[in-house]
């Protein structure tokens, strides 16, 4: 029997019908008997003391069942890693939009009306809005108790607004600069950007008694969510049961606790379930967008073009709190020196408190900022030498087995082949007309690990089910798990269903994120499916009285002997016992194999207006085994378009601490008319640590886009944009500056 080809097949998402028919349950869809609606009162000022708060009129409004303020949760802090955020403002507000009070009522309208009846008197302070100013030793402290916060990544000897200060190094960077023939220094800046998922944050909490709490939330990390809330309230994590919900888009932004703690307090006070749904105004002023950054890059080079030393200093504006970062820091900067051989490297990451919206995770957290700076710098260094930017990079590229800029060996990266493919497919070397430019940028990606568990079962009807606590955040991971099971059991994918478990029915996992879902859940699912297959063959062997070597899978949900006897999985289970096997995966190592993304942007610039048009974007990937080419390409296209938005238009505009872009009419994201010709090259190497040698694809495509476009603009009209987004106004001003200098 020929093996049924399932891995590598472009299977359409099998969960699609549930979503388009409305059968998929999101947190906003959850309705419980006696459920109340809750609304949150937010601070109108950037920084100040709460002198007085009076919620008595709100509490007296008919239909209001519970009101809570910071006094009810005084001293309770929460965070994904660093516990520095109050449940409700605890005497001090630190950003416009901070939660000050909350109301639960019989209807959404009553809850909204009750907020208007809460009287708050503030003593306003001068806000600290510039991260560079906030980082100075003499800056006013926004968190005087910072040294006492739980979850800090390192001791803070002297209180400071810099609450994360991390470094990675190799060699002696100062000696490297002394040994260099040319040193180039530049500073790059980026702005905050919202994830722009369709579904805003939503949750339902039922805490009717002290024994157990049920939570429905759009969280991609349900076990982390229950741990954070339990820790904050001094309870056992097992008390909280997080029920699975579909997630209406994530892009890194749905890993936080958001309003769940407030919902818990209100449910405890009212004795009834409570629902909170943020609207998009709330999302823009109090979500958890990508961090703004200031990045200083200093590069030392020999006359022959060899990189000798690289120093990168990242300063990230965390906003008012650090609570929305699962590792406490951003993992991107440590790899931001790129896929290059550099003997002397120093990378620093500082994260600073300011009186602005707290920032969190967004697709490839910290990477687009750092690689925008580094890959722009590579072009600037090449220009300084008068070298072709591709030739310059090729001199310095890491090859398989080389040491990375921060000292770990990368056994697989396939850099030359991937660069060559991008150059060829993009037409990089083709002649160009005036004001047409092409730019290249590279980024390597080492996938993060994690822990996961899955069950695969076959019942007496022959129904095959994969059961896991993994939630669907929109990437199609359920379909990938079904493909893995179908491959191992050699059945059509439609034979396999998915059951999503709540946190009480399976051991804790690390959840979805960091482009690792297929790696960790796929490996666990495959392990369970392999054991199920062996059990089926073992049981069939006993029933047929045949040895293992005389049995084959039919490809249609059965087992056949060499003599032609055949039995379905349902018949085997009916005559023996139902089969249910568990698979687990636990590996927290990053890489070591690296996926490489090489992108070439082609732009045309109007020299009179500065308006630029992205005409083509080519992205080439060295990656692992592709389980589903259709979904794989969807991740690439989505990442490219998200990177394009980051490069050209997206920005959470903030003035005096106030977010100005509070709807999608003002916060522009790419539309279909903005999308250029997209070309893709995928080179598969079955060397990754995912199932069947798979590697990450969700985040790499977003990383180099901005630098490729910036380099293309420079190639087109000779001006360098150091600050994202690259707008027509910035390009025109740079062109005028060049004209004036001439």
Mean pLDDT comes to 95
- Shape descriptor reads globular
Which bin fits the share of residues in helices? 25-40%
Oligomeric description of these chains: single chain
What structural class do you assign from the helix and strand content?
alpha+beta
Kindly report the spatial arrangement of strands forming the biggest sheet.
3-7-1-14-11-12-13
Largest sheet: 7 strands, mixed
Please work out how many helical segments DSSP would assign: 17
Runs in which pLDDT lies below 50 for 5 or more consecutive residues are none
- CA distance, first residue to last residue: 75 Å
| Radius of gyration computed on alpha carbons | 27 Å
Strand residue content: 25-35%
Q: What's the total count of β strands?
A: 30
Which structural traits does this protein have?
30 strands; 742 residues; single chain; 5-stranded mixed sheet; 17 helices
Set out the fold topology:
Blueprint: H1 16-20, E1 36-42, E2 48-54, H2 56-60, E3 64-69, E4 77-78, E5 85-86, E6 92-93, E7 99-105, H3 108-115, E8 119-124, H4 131-134, E9 162-170, H5 173-179, E10 182-190, E11 202-206, E12 213-217, H6 222-232, E13 240-243, H7 260-270, E14 274-277, H8 280-286, E15 292-301, E16 307-319, E17 344-353, H9 367-385, H10 389-396, H11 415-426, E18 436-445, E19 450-458, E20 464-468, H12 477-489, E21 496-500, H13 517-544, E22 551-553, E23 558-561, E24 566-568, H14 569-575, E25 579-587, E26 595-605, E27 612-623, H15 629-648, E28 654-655, E29 658-659, E30 677-684, H16 705-717, H17 728-741
Parallel strand pairs: 1-14, 12-13, 16-17, 20-21, 27-30
Antiparallel strand pairs: 1-7, 2-6, 2-8, 3-7, 4-5, 9-17, 10-15, 11-12, 11-14, 15-16, 18-26, 19-20, 19-25, 22-23, 23-24, 26-27, 28-29
Helix pairs in contact: 9-16, 12-13, 13-14, 15-16
